[in-house]
Amino acid sequence: MIYNDSRLDREERERQIENLLLAFGLTLLAGLATGIGSVLAFFTKTTNTRFLSLALGFSAGVMIYVSMVEIFFKAQDSLVNAMGEVPGKWVTVAGFFGGMVVIAVIDRLIPKAGNPHEVKKVEDMSASEPAVDQSHLLKMGTFTALAIAIHNFPEGIATFTAALNDPSLGIAIAAAIAIHNIPEGIAVSVPVYFATGDKKKAFKLSFLSGLSEPVGALLAYLVLMPFLNDVMFGVLFAGVAGIMVFISLDELLPASRRYGEAHLSIYGVVAGMAVMALSLLLFI
């Protein structure tokens, strides 16, 4: 019996380590998708706006559906179990809107000129020659990369938390955020190129800006994990749902419509929701 108990404990620890490594790996891959946006500057002359419109709509559909159907109710179940039905539901709603407030404040603090959600296209890389005041433009380009790094930080926490709790759910969220990060990579590369005239530097800064997502995951592990209980988990998951819904409504859908046709955007949303619904039914 003692042998069996120790073997079960060892298997549980191994499973937890595997989930932890998977959560970090998914967050890293999602963050580094900004580099894909930069690579487009090297291998394409124009942006495939129809595909990007569909992809951004698809990402929004995945994130909205999984947030409202799966993550929100997981948070609510955890909080209701810990606090009781009425307080648990109130705290869930507060955490949901609290997540929205956090990401909205971050978005407001980023000036429009450096905001990674301003639509940029690959063809912009050759639309203008670098300006003369190199020191000023270099500072502006570096700030753009810093802006996206700050914004991606809570996304890293969201991806890591979801993947750690449910690897299947984490894979879906990481894929959606990775799609969302591709045009952000373009948005970083274009102004950095204008600042330096150097495509390699534009790629490097865009690639490095994505590292803020695994840094967010590391912070979540070091700071939040020691205190993780049902209440902390529920509040964190509710906040993650709010962050993802806000990102979808404030960034992904408007960008999807600007990149392409309105119908393409909504087709992408419906397809994303359908794929997420099917995966929840089959695998989660």
TrEMBL record:
Residue numbers binding Zn(2+): 155, 180, 184
Transmembrane stretches, start-end: 20-44, 51-73, 93-110, 205-225, 231-252, 264-283
Catalysed conversion reaction: Zn(2+)(in) = Zn(2+)(out)
Keyword Lipid metabolism set for record: no
Cellular location(s): Cell membrane
Binding locations of Fe(2+): 152, 155, 181, 184, 213
Primary location recorded for the protein, binned into one broad class: membrane
GO cellular component: a single term: plasma membrane
InterPro entries: ZIP (IPR003689), Zn_transptr_ZupT (IPR023498)
Bilayer disposition of the protein: Multi-pass membrane protein
Keyword terms: Cell membrane, Ion transport, Iron, Membrane, Metal-binding, Transmembrane, Transmembrane helix, Transport, Zinc, Zinc transport
GO molecular function annotations of the record: metal ion binding; zinc ion transmembrane transporter activity
Domain of life where this protein originates: Bacteria
Keyword Amino-acid biosynthesis included in the entry's annotation: no
Pfam families per the UniProt record, alphabetical: Zip
Sequence similarity: Belongs to the ZIP transporter (TC 2.A.5) family. ZupT subfamily.
Role: Mediates zinc uptake. May also transport other divalent cations.
Xref: HAMAP family: ZupT
Protein name per its UniProtKB record: Zinc transporter ZupT
Record organism: Halobacillus alkaliphilus
Gene encoding the protein: zupT
